[in-house]
Design goal:
Two copies of one chain form a homodimer. Chain A contains twelve helices and 13 strands. Chain A has helices at residues 4-7, 47-65, 104-111, 121-132, 191-195, 197-209, 224-227, 230-238, 245-266, 282-295, 298-302, 315-322; strands at 11-17, 21-28, 33-40, 72-79, 83-84, 89-92, 100-102, 115-120, 141-146, 150-156, 159-160, 270-274, 305-308. Chains A and B meet through strand 10 and helix 9 of A and strand 10 and helix 9 of B.
């Protein structure tokens, strides 16, 4: 529970802990960013070094903002990987080498005289869109975070839904094709293997290796993965490119199937999409909605708003910052 | 809200309104059936006739029980089809010809001096297992009703989850194969098209028509659908039958995929299976759990109990009877 004094505080801090960057932002009660700062994670330097980077980011963010620490209610951290949210522990994070059972909440509590909240990064993004983005006022909402991988956050009855042991919302690991490509999680045919940036790129690389040529796409054969850009892939596909068009079509139709499944299972009021692929705007949204319409129960489809998030790249950090303001978050 | 006087009442009535039979049962607070009665729906005689049959079933059930109506708190109805649960209206029921926007709650309120509750039949079954069956004490539970079709009920935080407009829990209409067989709902590749009794039978009939012979299965060519029995189909498949074994394998593996998807999306504590196919017991459960293990996140799988319901064919009617005892059921 939050005491009266805390409720009156004007600011909170959000941290988005990624494998590449750490972002810290101070937001006000309207979700506006008063001050933000991004530094490299330097994950390769190991756990202790990364923890120091997190602390440094928060300190520098407060310093540059000139906001009095007494005016800050607390710090919310959006972190990857399986978490023990209640105890504030990062159990494991694939992109943070050496991170095993790290009690990040306790570590930060010892450094800062503030309340610390730990949350899954996709849940934080869903919460950001719910509080200050496309989902304001919507109590039943599902958010897909479409990036390198695919995550998800489920808001039920105005609260983040965690499930039995904080494992809910793994939307990227819905099996959409029994005998589809292998996914990073070990399963085959997950949504992530088709519709994430990594999934799309890996499927294109497989085809390049099989000798399929592209008419429109430029890439560097010596540095294939990094030289492929989602935007260029979608552009090439729209021109009818042999290499990319089926893969982009699959990426969209499997995402449509996943959203239709969510519509039939959870019947939410809104599905919010965030992440790089949403830069495609209506070029993504129109075929996607068509697929959902084809697949979902009509009344579930009809009552569903499918929208692109409004916070762009900030959903995660803004949502993390909004955590200290919620009551009863940790039901799992 | 339920008043104090009502809470002290000892019995409630549940009605399971099916396309073939109407079952009425009076249960006590422990979920034990004090008296029950089953009559034919005679749906083909039309809406008015069926409504009279429902009223008759309830009256006769009370009469035969010798329980004083004053001791009965209310009547819960488990009904098929899209419902307006809040207003107590059956919008449409595929198996009840002529049923369009029938205000069943109001009709029964006018006949009986009791509170009436209307609920989707699969939600009622989930609620029955939650209150008095395999899911007692479990607050996050998903129930699959595996019968002619496939339905579902989701219990979140100890309450039936309805979604935005009472459309949640349509688990049978998860798309599990993009280009799978056509489903009754109009979509292709729904779970129901693979793993329901109808789905299994239809796929076998397609193969029989293509000239594929069975070594072990008996059926009547003039009355194919009705002469096929799920039990015999599973028996034949276990003997390695060419006609049936792939189809039974698909039925189980797609159901496993659907459960794994639910595990990854909702991370429930328990999945309860009810309906005819569960008579297969461990012959169903063992390969099913293997598929879920292969597909779901390990921690979501590890913490998940996958069980067969304990109320056999009574989950729906017992769950309907338990409706008058819950508060705040109607969140949608």
């Amino acid at each position: 529970m939050i005491d009266k004094e805390s409720i009156e505080k004007k600011y909170s801090i959000g941290v988005d802990l990624g494998g590449t960057n750490i972002t810290s932002a101070i937001i006000n009660r309207q979700g506006e960013i008063a001050s933000s700062l991004k530094i490299r994670t330097l994950a390769e330097k190991g756990k202790e070094a990364t923890i120091k980077r997190i602390i440094k980011a928060i300190y520098e963010n407060i310093a540059q903002s000139a906001i009095a620490p007494d005016d800050i209610i607390g710090i919310g951290i959006g972190a990857p990987g399986p978490l023990d949210i209640k105890r504030g522990i990062i159990n494991f994070a694939p992109n943070l080498p050496g991170w095993r059972d790290v009690p990040l909440k306790k570590i930060l509590e010892d450094k800062f005289n503030m309340k610390i909240f730990l949350e899954n990064d996709a849940n934080a993004a869903a919460w950001g869109e719910r509080c200050f983005g496309a989902g304001q006022g919507i109590n039943d909402l599902v958010c897909f975070t479409l990036g390198t991988g695919i995550g998800g956050g489920i808001i039920i009855d105005g609260k983040i839904y965690h499930g039995n042991n904080c494992g809910a919302g793994e939307l990227g690991h819905m099996t959409v094709n029994k005998s589809g490509p292998r996914c990073n999680c070990g399963n085959y045919g997950c949504l992530e293997a088709y519709s994430s940036a990594t999934g799309v790129k890996n499927r294109i690389i497989d085809r390049i290796k099989k000798g399929i040529k592209s008419e429109f796409l430029n890439f560097d054969n010596d540095n294939l993965f990094d030289s492929l850009r989602l935007k260029s892939i979608f552009q090439a596909a729209r021109k009818g490119d042999i290499l990319t068009s089926d893969i982009v079509e699959d990426a969209i139709s499997y995402l449509g199937i996943a959203i239709a499944n969510i519509a039939n299972i959870l019947n939410p009021e809104m599905v919010v999409l965030v992440g790089g692929i949403t830069n495609e705007g209506n070029k993504l949204l129109i075929p996607l909605i068509k697929e959902v319409k084809k697949r979902a129960f009509y009344s579930n489809y009809k009552s569903l708003k499918i929208v692109i998030g409004k916070l762009a790249g900030n959903a995660g950090v803004v949502g993390a910052a909004a955590l200290p303001w919620i009551l009863n978050t940790y039901s799992c």
